[in-house]
Amino acid sequence: MTQTRLGSLVEACLNVLIGFIINMAANFVILPLIGFRISLVQNLFIGVLYTLISVARSYTVRRWFNARIHKAAQRLVGESA
Questions:
Q1: What pLDDT score was predicted for residue 39?
Q2: What is the value of pTM for the model shown?
Q3: Ramachandran angles phi, psi of 39, nearest 5°
Q4: DSSP state letter for 3
Q5: I need a surface site. Which of 5, 13, 60, 81 has the fewest CB within 10 A?
């Protein structure tokens, strides 16, 4: 069974939301250690930009992977018929 496009989008968004939360916390810890001070608004802005990029990437990879699995399954069914 293949994953629907909506299912792929929901999975990608949940994955990225978890990453967003981790990223926000990490930015406040790591960036000051290397000399960068950012405000909450700057951190949110950076996080939103990277989140949009990450959702698009994750969704595209999931759809590509799902299509490959579907094609491989069809080949297997075709060979055994």
A1: 92
A2: 0.58
A3: -85, 170
A4: P
A5: 81
